[in-house]
Amino acid sequence: MRRLLVIALATTAAWGALGAQSVPAADKLRIVTSTTDLKALTEVVTGNLAEVDSMARASQNPHDLEVRPSLMVKVRRADAMIVNGLELDLWADVVAQGANNANVIPGAPGRIDASSGILVLEVPKTHVDRSMGDIHPVGNPHYTLDPGMAPAVTQNILEGLARIAPQHRAAFERNRQQFLARIDEAMGRWNKMLAPYKGSPVVVNHALWVYFLTRFGLVQVGTVEERPGIPATANHIVKLVNLMKEDHVKTIIAEPWSDFKLVERIAQEAGAQAAILAATVGSVKGTDTFLEAADFNVKALAQMLK
Amino acid sequence: MRAFVALALVLGLLVPAAPVRAQDAEALRQEMERMRKQFEAMQEQYKKTMDSMAERLERVEARPQPAAAAPPVAVQPAPAAPPATDLTAQQSPGSAPSPLDLIRPRQPFALYERRGAGQLLFDMGVTGDFVGNLTQHNVQKNQGGSFPGLENLFYLREGEVSFFGQIDPYARAEVRIEAGQDQRGGNLNVSVAEANISLTALPYGTQLKMGEMRNRFGLLNEIHSHDRPFIDDPNVLVQFFGAEGLREAGFEATWVPPLPFFIELLGGVFNGQNDVAFGRDQISNPLVTGRVRTFFDLDEWGAIQLGSSVAAGQTPQQKSSTILGFDAKYKYTPPGWQRAVFTLLGEYLLSFRDVVVTDPEGIDTTRYRGSQGFYIGGELRPFNHGELSKWLVGFRYDRTQYPAASGTEWAVGPFLSYYPSEFLRFRLGYKQTTRSQCCSYLDFQDNGGSAKQVSEYFLQATFIMGAHPAHPF
Q1: Is 50 exceeded by the pLDDT of residue A172?
Q2: CATH code, B273
Q3: Does the pLDDT at position A88 exceed 90?
Q4: Chain B within 8 Å of A265 (Cβ-Cβ)?
Q5: Comparing B216-220, B354-358, B426-430, which segment has the lowest mean pLDDT?
Q6: A23-183: what CATH class?
Q7: Could you name the CATH architecture of A192-305?
Q8: Beta-carbon separation of B66 and A242 below 8 A
Q9: Sheet order of strands, A111-113 included
Q10: CB pair distance less than 8 Å for B92 and A197
Q11: What is the pLDDT of residues A121-158, one digit of tens each?
Q12: B110 touches A at CB < 8 Å
């Protein structure tokens, strides 16, 4: 019994001592995002008012990130954590739990879901199960690939950050408007670039590009993966090649982490071209900002569709 | 006066408007003619589009369905997308899809509709873990296999229903109910494997967990059987903690200090319900646990986690018992790989306990006993993509002393894993165990120590349905 009391007293004392030694708030906000896309979009909102870091690296598939304690170090001192939502980055919950940071747990002011209120595509309307592969039951979560989503996503980021730093709201809004003006200008250019190919059929490796393709009026007619997350079988490849030939598909889009040799082989057999696009900001050389990534993707696609 | 002014203004406007009206009528006629022509052109265009559609539909229907069971894909315009008008004029030639193709819901998807009051506010998951093993008849007779009493049987080792989620903004909870066969005869034993609350909103990087839980001691103890990297449990863990592992009711607090590198400190107070190492079962004479864990991300060289754990309490005979553990786990994931190509892990345990020994005259005396044991195991995934990426090969080497009796056992075993998807796994394994002596501690029916040499073949089938949280490193 005495041992128990000693433990309880020691714990209480240590807890109090920790409080006394707590680190004062730094000048800059510390923000952690789940993906590099959200990092890029957060940086344009915060400007130099925050230090922003991403948990997933640009080269990593954000669907299935290994929860390393090094991610918890990033989150441990964060004022805010911005997640993609729509069940893309459920691993972020495990990171938040392991980081012991009350600022970023679900429901905390510093927990920001960038998908709030956006119009989600590919939401199952009928019964779905895992026989369909690793399907997203609440809809396709890859909305940040569509540059036209930037206004909605940055608005969510702004509202979330204004909760924890209301004094910076005006600066965030100013930064955001400047960024949206640049997006608007670029969007006109991108629309013009892809306008001649509206309605063109496109095959993708993984169903990652539906927001991007829809934005520019292109049509996804097939996937290299037989079902989401399940590699293609020989039978599926034969059917896909036939489909591509019949529909005169000229283009296959792949992600940096895909099996590009297989994608190239299918493209070759179908008389099409394959290319790796920037599935996340920074995943391809020269795509270190949101605008650069979108610009790269539009140009690469226009080039292939010629 | 004001009315007069208004009347004058109206008249002033009407008088010059009369000849203009005649000119407008002519312009209107011309405009209508132009519109009529436009309408005819549109009609023609629409007819062509419909013909093209019908032709395309016939072609598609005549074609065998590609990947009949493949999940459907819907394409619907995003909210801020430019209006999809006049697309046909800009289509590329050939069989490019028409505007109707763009909006036609070819698959059962619709725009997202947030669920209402019926939305479930927590996650649920179901897992099943079946194990089969083949071994010698004498091993079955002595219950000396890796699954004592269940030798030469295919059975449900663990069927688990789990519920987890936020209780409110300050806490989350998890409840796991397990059913499994633990003796021959087919009867299932149902138990609450875990039921605990975590207070996640505590300040200063602290967190408190309370309830029934698998203790965070070493690498594997906190992981449920179906998620462990081996078919059977390492010998040292079975010998030191029993087949169930360390599963206790009590409190566990963690602190992650705000440092540039990861370190987690853990302390816990529990009843002491473990029937092998800590069975006092009194919170007033508690089992006290502690753990320190750190992690180093070596970038292109992989990542390594190091930890040490301690558990100190009293045995069921009210004798002191302390177990120290040291663990390490290394993973190497080459750039561009989705999962680790190579994983190496191991634990080294030391046990210090007082045991009651009965001498030949029938007098009980207490003696101090120190013992140790370890395991080291690894897994290799040679391929990153395609069908071959679903296969892994692994091995484990075990060596342990018995904590309450004399004797040593060691074992070695390779295994092969196949993952058709991340929700389904099959494993085949072999294990060869050698014991220096077959001890009554293991409850063998001593008949000449015939379980000294044990050869076992394993089969494991594991599935996951529904939600399953990502596992830590």
Answers
A1: yes
A2: 2.40.160.10
A3: yes
A4: no
A5: B354-358
A6: alpha beta
A7: 3-Layer(aba) Sandwich (3.40)
A8: yes
A9: A50-54, A29-33, A80-83, A111-113
A10: yes
A11: 998 888 888 888 778 888 999 999 999 999 999 999 99
A12: yes
